[in-house]
Amino acid sequence: MKKFAWPLLALIALVLAACSEQETDNSGEEESVTPVEVEKITQGDLSVDKQFYGRVTPESTAPVIPPTPGEVESLEVEKGEQVEEGDVIATIKSAEGMGNVDIEAPADGEVTSLEANEGGMVSNSEPFVTIVDLDNLLVEVTVTAEDLALFEDSDEAKVQFTSLDKELTATIEYAASVPDDTGLYPVELSFENEDNDIKPGMTAVVQLAEKVVKDTLLVPTAALVDDSGKSFIYIVKDDQAVEVPVEIVETQSDVTAIEADVAEGDTVVVKGQLTLTDGGQVSIKKEEQ
Fold it and tell me: Which residue range or ranges hold the YknX-like C-terminal permuted SH3-like domain (predicted)?
């Protein structure tokens, strides 16, 4: 009886080990699911913009020169104060026998310089007050002869102020026909400073369309994958990632025009695609509310 017990026990052990190994193999064959974020492919025009850097300057500056020299009897304004056209800003006792003379603001704006004190003397050859219009400002840029045509062919341009995270539309007022001493062509753009948060001296980024790609397929630039110089995207179909080769027509930082075997409305992976393979299982993350 004992002779048969040991072989039987060994056989049972082998069967159990085989079953355990098969279960391990089957568990390893389960395919992983990659969570991804997606967007829809769209169709439309892509504007390829060119950027130019410039500075903000006042559109108008009004220096105030007294009509007569004399002593400042009273000073009605302070530096930084807002005035309106016609406001009395000072009264001067004329040194030429004209009596007391009221000096009025010639324009609306902010008093940006004040070179006088009550009881002090002012002349009629130099300004003692400067008033700057901060409601209407200019952006001044200088461009090459090749880029000058972009401004000559346009009426408006987008202007960004990165320090304020603000963008607005400015009117192209002037494009020089002759270069300045640097060999570049001055260009001026005007805009309304409605919130009075833009100040002279700030850096501005002017954007103009250099080229427009018409009626093209558009994908988020983040969706593109590059491998050995070849570009492709992943489309989601039936919870699977489908690799689609693409030809890049034009690209911007946020959107790219492509040619590919896809259609408007297809779902493209924009996050998580770097770990995908063609045919891999995916789950789409829902947007947080």
Answer: 218-283
- Whether 118 and 66 map to the same domain: the answer is yes
Confidence of residue 286 (pLDDT cuts 50, 70, 90): confident
Query: The whole model's pTM is what?
Result: 0.68
CA dihedral (52, 56, 57, 58) in degrees, to 10, reads 130
Number of domains in the chain: 2
- Beta sheet of 88-94, edge-to-edge order: 100-104, 88-94, 70-75, 121-122
Structural domain including 122 reads 61-132
Q: Does residue 153 fall inside a structural domain?
A: no
Same-domain check for residues 82 and 116: yes
End-of-domain residue from the set 104, 132, 160: 132
Nearest to 70 by CA among 97, 88, 102, 92: 92
Alpha-carbon gap, residue 27 to 19, rounded angstroms: 12
Chain segment 106-153, per-residue pLDDT in tens: 999 999 999 999 999 999 999 999 999 999 999 999 999 999 999 998
Residue 95 falls inside a structural domain? yes
Whether residue 93 is contained in a domain is answered as yes
Q: Is 80 exceeded by the pLDDT of residue 210? A: yes
Q: Both tokens of residue 156? A: 């408006």
- Sole residue written with tokens 């690209």: 251
